UniProtKB/TrEMBL annotation:
It comes from Enterococcus devriesei. Gene3D superfamilies: Glycosidases, Immunoglobulins, Oligo-1,6-glucosidase, Domain 2. InterPro entries: GH, GH13_cat_dom, Glyco_hydro_13_lg-like_dom, Ig-like_fold, O16G_dom_2. The keyword Transmembrane helix does not apply. SUPFAM superfamilies: (Trans)glycosidases. This is Neopullulanase. Keywords: Glycosidase, Hydrolase.
Amino acid sequence: MSLIHGDPYTLEEDRWHKQTTNMRKTLSTDLYDFWEVDVTAPYRRLSYGFVVTGYDGSAVFFTEHGVFPLEEQFLTMANNYFRMPFFHEIDRFKAPQWVKETVWYQIFPERFANGDTSNDPEDVLAWGSKDSPGRQDFYGGDLQGVLDNLDYLSDLGVNGLYFCPIFKAHSNHKYDTIDYLEIDPAFGDKELFRELVTECHKRGIRIMLDAVFNHIGDTSPQWLDVVENGAASRFKDWFHIHSFPVHYTKTADFEVAKDMNFDTFAFTPHMPKLNTANKEVQEYILTIAKYWINEFDIDAWRLDVANEVDHHLWKKFAEACHELKDDFYILGEVWHSSQSWLQGDEFTAVMNYSFTESIINYFLEHTISLEKFVSNLNEQLTLYRKQTNQMMLNTIDTHDTPRLLTLADGNKDLMKQVLAFLYLQQGVPCLYYGDEIGMDGGMDPDCRKCMVWEPEKQDRNMFTFMKQLIAFRLENQFTLSEGTLAWLKIDPDNGILIFERSTPEECLIGIFNTGDQPIQEDLSGEVSFVHLANIQKNQLTIKPNGFVIAKK
């Protein structure tokens, strides 16, 4: 495969159609091979076409208008070529440098630490008093608890805090917002939050707030006005209401209803869906977006249920945020392919759930083959531009999913292997609170247990491992983020997976034994990270669930 390219206005003069640039095959899926080449465009515009050569040596010219014989008459037709008319700076995707250099730590505020008992909600339970928390339980976690434990987080090495919602809400999870402009009183107040942001920034820790603008809580003043006044409510057009008065039929499950005459998140009557095409709703959301940046200097928004909100609003949202901070990070919750949100004028990145799913399917659930696993990862990497891949948030577990240790059936060696693999990938890793000390938990609410603070109940070996892994990630961020990926060995019979990430200056090699027998591999280079492996000179014996990372 080779490329023919040049300025669209100089084809006849420069005859650049007679010059080809060889391309390199980079990644492959079970359907496609992907080829790349780096070229420059001095005049900020580009025409290009491809010469595709078959195994038999025959070649064709692949263009915007299809496939043609590789002949002069077709090579000199200017309108045949794919074209990038002009590279406008305002249209370029902006990749904030600090994001690439971040390891996030996700905090579910109600369960991280209770630093101030004076603001505990009514009927608060003693910290960690139940093995499995109930959906309606409160334990008193708050922002003071986070502030009190910044030394712990700094020692762990994370440099970004991703908070589940902290705004005033009825529930313990706070995704049923009452007021986006107020801190929930059970978490503290704005002065406390301002102090927390300031102290985090002093330590080089960035702050990302979670907000859900797809829906609002059913105890919000806007929705209560609709319930009371029906069609006469000034907020009736803030929602998707099909008739008045609003109603639904309760079911045994508090979170689900039927016969609703208004749109909601899923079938949850307590989360009526906002009409984000409404001008007043738009202004309300944009005011919120700017308020927390202007007043508290937050660094990022994580947007819940982002794929169910219209693109029109997200473009305005991104513009409003970036006017205040050029390097602001906007992260969308999208569980599927996300190209339409990642063109540079909406989200910086999305939560990389498809990537996560492939890791879980292979390492933890064993539902796909090693070849399919690699194909899936390659497919994800080729969906988006490189700058986007560098911004994607990579995590295995969250407040919405079972914890990693539970997915690993309590196998901590397997948990470590999965985390090591994740931290070697392009994108920014995120650690769910408590994983670093070996907490477990099933599907929510079980994954939202109170953080364990008693040292004797913590897995300190896991903490040391995570501290070393985070440090390794941050020390080698440039190679892991900017480096080219190459799969060196894919051996499904023995579960051997070897890959490298390389720049002209450095190469990192990861060797993973995902099989059930020890493997032996030759090694050349400085060993940087070892888990369950014996090394004798340049010979490695790697146990099952083991890995080695080496530098060349």
